[in-house]
Amino acid sequence: MSHSANDPLNLRSIFSFKSLLLKTIGALCATVAIKGFMIPNHFLDGGILGISILVHEFYHIDVTSILIGLNLPFVFIGYKKIGKNFAINTLVSLILLGVFMTFLPVPTVTKDYFLVAAFGGVFVGLGIGFVIRGGGVIDGLEVVAGFTNKKFGLTVTEIIMAINTSIFLIIAIFLGLEKAMYSILTYFTALKVSDYVVDGFEKLISLTIISPNHELVKDIVVNQFNKPVTILKGERGNLPGSYNVKHDCDIIVTIVTRLEVHKMRKAIRESDPKAFMYVENINEVNGGVISKKSDHF
Question: Is 286 among the domain residues?
Fold first, then answer.
């Protein structure tokens, strides 16, 4: 069933200043990466961008036409499977990218292969990340990966990795192993940068605290930091040398951002130096009272 019928059009959000600014910055960064780093040095990336540059290298067709043309079918897929707001956001992002690629002059930044791979990846990652923050995508593979993620339970990263492995094998066969290795470096740099731009300091972390002073810790988390907690009934003790010594306790679990976790751990440590704490990264949070930006997929 199409998601479009359940996705009321929100043009105010799509064309808001923040959304347009994020998409514009993303398209600019991607243009700098493609025209300033990658094409002049015959470098490739993964995804639709990598395929577009590969076709450009073999057939000398304008890379902008290829990039936009290959992405347009995914706008339709996004409309059918995700929603009309996502499709329009993606179409606006592609139009901005096409305009900048066509009319913005970008000089070759460097000829150093390592710098091209590293900083080309940085600008690609910034471009992809800012566009996602703006509500769209500029690489159609993300649409397929995002939808497949819900169908088969694989992460978006795992799906894109599998697709890009095939692209890198083609690069190795036809353009040489060195080009393939630099392309992999570009891809991984772009992946990490885009992840950081999308999640940023808002990336959620699970903090678990085990303390004999659990009421004090709950007061700090809930009343000082205004965070909800989940309480697990547990048992402290069972240590080497005192295995039979044990005490009932509340195990406190809360969800915090990357910035908040350091402040919270410091406050707990100052009030209860014996508190045992550990953190876990979280890929996804749904439901409850956790506030997090919506998933574009």
Answer: no
Using 70 as the pLDDT threshold, list the residues of the chain that sit under it: 1-7, 142-159, 201-202, 283-297
DSSP assignment of 205-263 equals EEEEEE-TTHHHHHHIIIIIS----EEEEEEEEEETTEEEEEEEEEEEEEEEEHHHHHH
pTM: 0.74
Do 135 and 46 belong together in one domain? yes
Are 113 and 183 within one domain?
A: yes
> How far, rounded to the nearest angstrom, does the alpha carbon of residue 239 sit from its chain's CA centroid?
41
Structure tokens at 139: 């690489």
Domain that holds residue 223: 204-281
- CA torsion 152-158-160-162 (nearest 10°) is -100
**In angstroms, rounded to a whole number, what is the distance separating the alpha carbons of residues 242 and 254?**
30
Among residues 181, 200, 219, the one where a domain terminates is 200
